[in-house]
Amino acid sequence: MSTYRGTFEHDSFLGWLNLFKIRRLQMLYNVGERPPYPVIISKPTVGDVLRNLNKADFGLFATVSFLGFFAARKSTLGLTTTEFVRQRGFSIAWNSIMMAGALFACMNSNNRLTGFVDNGLQWRRKEQRLNKYDFTSEFEEGTIWKFFRLR
């Protein structure tokens, strides 16, 4: 168990359960805001994501595959055609569910690299907002572009 009550270590087999404890599901941050955890790689490649897979991602994949086996079996029992069609339907359903589990594991790894999921690191400063000066707002207010502002 982690130092926080009710959470798991980020690299344990059950670490993926911490995904249900995300309190701030904000994907776009305003100017000066940062993700909840330090960023390891801001734009990870597919190779970076695959190299970053750990026990939590494997646990997520294994759980989805295990539960998907029973879901695929249950969903194909109602097929009243030949045995071949039933077996083929089960194979397609279970492989699709396992691919979804692999996708969830890769998404978790990507979010860990970009700081949206606990990656074992902590910010040195606890403030959510960084102190930055916006150099363009004052200039923009004096031009016609202030009417075309997106934020």
From TrEMBL:
Pfam families: NADH-u_ox-rdase (PF10785)
UniProt-listed InterPro entries: NADH-Q_oxidrdct_subunit (IPR053229), NADH-UbQ_OxRdtase_su21_N (IPR019721)
Domain NADH-ubiquinone oxidoreductase 21kDa subunit N-terminal: 35-117
PANTHER family assigned: NADH-UBIQUINONE OXIDOREDUCTASE 21KDA SUBUNIT N-TERMINAL DOMAIN-CONTAINING PROTEIN (PTHR34062:SF1), OXIDOREDUCTASE 21 KDA SUBUNIT, PUTATIVE (AFU_ORTHOLOGUE AFUA_4G04750)-RELATED (PTHR34062)
Protein name per UniProt: NADH-ubiquinone oxidoreductase 21kDa subunit N-terminal domain-containing protein
